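Follow-up to my earlier ticket, as requested here are the two runs.
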Amino acid sequence: MESTSVAKVRHCPLVLGALGVVYGDIGTSPLYTVKQCFDALGGATSVTIYGVLSLITWALIVIVTIKYVGVIMRADNRGEGGILALTALALRVAKPGTSLHWTILAAGLLGASLFYGDGVITPAISVLSAVEGLKVVTPAFAPYVIPLTIAILLGLFAVQRTGTARIGGYFGPAMAIWFLVIGLLGAIQIVRHPDILFALNPWYGLSLLWDNPMRGFVLLGAVVLAVTGAEALYADMGHFGKEPIRRAWLYFVFPALLLNYFGQGALLLHDTAALENPFFHLVPAWGIYPMIALAALATVIASQAVITGAFSMTRQAVLLGYIPRVVIRHTSEQEIGQIYVPKVNMMLLLAVIAVVLGFRNADNLGTAYGIAVTGTMSLTTILAFIYMVGSAGWNRWRAMALFGAFLIVDLTFFAANALKIEEGGWFPLAIAAGIFALMITWLKGREALLTARWRDALPLDMFLQTLSPERPKRVPGTAIFLVANDQVVPSALLHNIKHNKVLHERVVLMKIEIQDIPRVPEEQRIVIQHLDHNFHSIAVAYGFMDEPNVPRALAQLRLMQFRFNLLETSFFVGREKLVLRKLGGLWTWRKRLFIIMHRTMMSATEYFRIPTNRVVELGGQTEI
């Protein structure tokens, strides 16, 4: 009993932190979900009110509570979650280069691309929905909604460069206040009209769908707004752990959401005029302005979680080789997860502002919201099934029944949102398609580039056999060559011999490998192989959540009795110019796109934190 109590106390700060980071998106869904549902139905009656609340309730139970909290969070990659971590797990069941391997990889990259599409819509609809509360006070505020929304978003993206370490400490308590307030507002209406609790019966939702299947199908496209943000439970598992996230949902977030949704339903049941904005009509007149301020704060926190998630996913994608190297700045000396990616921040800001100016209000944005989320949910279900059956040892038939049921629900919601593609759903899909095309181009292009590099490469063992004490001349010091393949001679080494006619006294071929696990233990990070003629091959392993750092690796080598004096060490980095090869390989447009991506990527020197005054760059030309 004592150990259980201690564990609960230890989890309290993590539960509070999860409220601020994990549940910001799904926690602000009551701002717009109920209104969107009845807009889809064209009005509210007692029958539709009971039906809508029943569907929202059971969507939260089936998708969030059972699927994500109960099942999907079991598919963790050494504690880490998210679509890319799950993809790494699922890829273990397929041999590299096979069609199954490429299919799984494509599914994972598509899921990651859809995440970025969702990341553009979430800040826009969340902040816009909060600011639109001003129109409840008086329509005179309507002209100021969009300028104020853009001002808040500009401020939000501007502070990203300073880091969220300091303000992050306030996220949890702020969201705790948010959930307490929205739960209390809903509970007041439920006490006044307790008959709304009959909507807990799933029969009301099923009847609404059955009586008019087409209308019900359209309605599902709005109901899914209640579960947007469910993927965050899984993606942020590594930050807080399973138990704090589960407890925060079951004991705090889920009850607060249900109370608010049912409170909005109770209000509509006896005052359909509140359909204008049922969330803010729950608030007494004296509390409108404080509630708008609290809602704005909650939506900023929800947006912050999405932005931080985009930064984290970008870092994972870079390390796994799915996108080119980009500038990633650390904003905290204590927390490795506190990062800032300038390019991603700027692209998200421009896209979000374009969304706000293009769609103008939350109702229009609701038509664009949902399809990216449901697409990611469907792919998560498929990848989790592959991993559970292929690696985790689940019974195939039981897993097929369980995940089959999940997939039917996911695809139903996805199909319902597909009806909204023409009205605005095309926008997040277009963003996802563009990012997916970039990722596939980078993967295929790197494959073609490595093939071209190694096509005529000299095997290392053959090169070592040609060396002698006299030729070429050896000069004092250490030369480190960063290589992708330590079995062949790097072109930079051959260029150095060709132009400078010398070879350093000690030559190190350093290969940096990214493994499909989040973090590599320090004792397993480095493997050394000593070769003839004072050549050495060093493999440095990192996980997709680690921070590659060559000087730190050299310091670790000193502890392994393999010492380096940086003042006597030169790093040789190849800088190659890519040119089009007329025949064979990739399509011409894809080659051109890859060459542009290759030219604009961050240099290896900066990315691996190599001292710039110790770097020698040797150029060459490669046809792809």
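Run two:
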Amino acid sequence: MIDNRFEQAVELHRQGQFHQAQSIYEEILETAPAHVETLNLLGILAAQTQEHRRAVELIDRAIAIFPHHADSHFNRGQALQALGQWDDAAASFDMAIALKPDYVDAWLNRGNAKLRLKAWAAALASYEKVIGLQPDHAEAWANRGLVLHELKEWDAALVSYDKATGLNPDYAEAWLNRGNTLLELREREAAIASYDRATEINPGFIEAWYNRGRTLMELKAWDAAVASYDRLTAINPDFIEAWYNRGLAMKALGRLEEALASYDRLIALDSVLADAWFNRALVLQEMKRLEEAVESYNRVIVIKPDYAEAWSNRGVALKELKQLDAALASYDNAISFKPDYPEAWYNRGNALIELKQFHTALDSYDRATALRSDYANANWNKSIVLLSEGDYLKGWELYEWRWRADGFPSPERDFRRPLWLGGESINGKTILLHSEQGLGDTIQFSRYVNLVAALGARVVLEADPPVIGLLRQLEGVAEFVVKGDRFPWFDLHCPLMSLPLAFKTTLETIPSASGYLSSEPTKLDEWSRRLGGKAKPRIGLAWSGRPQHQNDHNRSLPLALLVQLLPPGFQYVSLQKEINEVDWPTLDSQTEIVYYGDDLKDFTDTAALCELMDVVVSVDTSVAHLGAAMGRPTMVMLPFIPDWRWLLDRNDSPWYDSVRLYRQEIQGDWTGVLTRLSADLLKQSW
């Protein structure tokens, strides 16, 4: 009777009719509580229906009756694995193996338990035992690869994965883990191919899509990475890490609105994820939505008050909003949580510069460079402070950090020839002097050319097309090269703005303070005819520089304000060729300003006009340098924080004898500058 009922229960169990099978198993146990086969199978059924604790209890009863049944110990181990009791599970598999030494599944599961326990040697030995018993066991090869991966034996792990995928080409997990090992070997393209194979086999394989996306990000293949994350989030819209990385990739692509949308989606899933708010703030900051960026940083700080990077970046946003005291407080908070944070010290220095606290700023830069001696931005900005204060010997040396600083407008050029900075004789050698940064910089530092020639060198001078014609008058130049053309042979090179370092220039030894450039006689005649007879004093105007200049928003002023405050009684001539879009309506409505536009072909034309002006009035742009280098009376309007070359708190310049400086006394206030400048124009005896 029991045998018949038992066979009936086993058949129902085999058919997946678990409820009916369970009823019969329990009925048998009421009659025969020590029926070992029934206890075992009811335990297996309990495990199959996720009742793992009951499974262990039932199998324990079976083992107590018949302890030498290897399958009972194996089944107990599987139930314990499901409960996460890895040590006990491994002990059960050991018992099964002791009873049945060639028990492949017990060896495999023992390896899995040891793998979870990070008992790498025991796990490896278990998988190798399986392979010894059954060489074509793909799972054992794949799991052996996992252990070898953890042991950082990458090449051996790869061999195991290749064996597993050779035995089972559709083994998606093995392809995934093969990709992970290839990634450790820095073979990223091969890793992606493995992830691709995994997703071909299993299009819904989330981990493979995620790792594929991460690897593509390492390759900076941002579009392809986004495509991976899009596939992943289509499978699982709540996968937080995918939205996070998608936001990073979108930001790298400059697709800021989509990056923002990714972080917003992420925050909707987890509103207290500080990193999501932080990266959202970074995106808003790049979009110049600064108030919103500050709000996001505030959310970060509420969630994680000691998030030093959020405090520091919040300070950057506040600085851009000109909330300088608040920015400084934010940097101080960052430093209080992370005193060894060089970026926060650097940012603090930048805020102090804006507050015109130069000595304190220097201390902050010193703290930054003490923490990171090769911190290019901090070293470069420190040089700017020193040069602004007139400490030229230290300043020029640190100014060489400019090439490595973020955002420096002139990339360092690799000529594969030695750089000359004054430390060796150049007598009899050919040296290339090359321009960098703006046209005004080229004009200012071209004064050094004849000093180089005086050292016995053959000088080749490279410059941009607009100024090359103007510079051809310089003495000591053997050959001129327009930037972009091929160079002749040269032995050494030096950027123009490194020449003060080469000559150890101090305030007292600045060469050629004025009059080292002049206009061409033919151009002067041509422009004299075009201007006609002079009925009143002529004032040359330059009110804005190139919009691409990183400080243009501070150094340029609106034409509408200029014409409103300049005094009548003068003939005003625009010395600018390019006009900002915002200034066109004002210029079109003015009859008092003569504008020649495209007729100014290059700086030889501008120089002729400067020569014909009684005064050149300019913001800090190339026209100011041109007028001053020609020795023309030049009034330069400077922002509250001036460029380093104009020094601090003086109305003259050691670089140019004919310059008078007009400085903002309040941040952004051009009205006071123009009022003083206009008063001085009216005082002149014409």
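The only thing I checked on run two: The chain is about 60% helix and 5% strand. Let me know what else you need.
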